[in-house]
Task: structure prediction
Amino acid sequence: MRGEPRTENLEPAAPDNRAGWDAIAVDYQRERGWPSDRLAWGVKAPFEDELRLLGGVRGKSVVVLGCGGGQDIVALSKMGAREITGVDLSKPQLEHAVKLLAGQGVQARLIHESVEDLSAIPKESQDVAVSIHTLNYVEQADRCFQETHRVLRFGGLFAFSVQHPADASTQDEPPFGFEKPYFQVEFDWSWRGVGGEPRFRSYYRTVGDWFDLLRESRFTVEQVLEPRPVDDPVWHELAWASMNDYEKYDTVPGTLIFVARKPKR
Result:
């Protein structure tokens, strides 16, 4: 689950993010898609083979929180992950994942559920948890973090990326001025021109908010990254280049990445 929101301000009735992703899944995968040959942390952000945030996943069990159409699962499989579990709230996204994994010869367990509920995954069964541009759609991120802490083994790694709150607060056109307060967390928007333009609610927590949520969930934060954009051909091939991100991301960071760990006993 990932996107680039840009529209109206908060409305009283909360949009249904599950219904929104169900509505746009087919169009999203056909018109935008996401890299699967390499693990991508964000639109035009450096890839894992450059950042090396996971420290290698070969032979490890990995859970992907918000696996969407399965691209991150394929990338992790190519990196040597032994056992992969994907969790996503959108059934059409998971249907795309099933087809993609079958075509790539990748085995994975797929769970149709919100990342706020990982009860289908046993306690202390995972070595690594990865989430890429999903948690902006999660209202109760504290529950997600607590559940992630539960399913990770002691010493396990949790790495996630979200749309940077500075990017979410500013316009996409120069001079990239503010269009909403940086400290406004809830923001309602419509994805124009895709799947009937359903409405979504995003949760744009500040950098400090994310740090506090990790600390309160008993994680130790090891890295915080705000990477500059990279002009990799893959983004042009996937049609993301139609967006004005390169100029903007040279001014305002587009992706925020946290790397945290469940402390050893």
Notes: The first helix runs from residue 17 to 31. The chain has nine helices and nine strands.
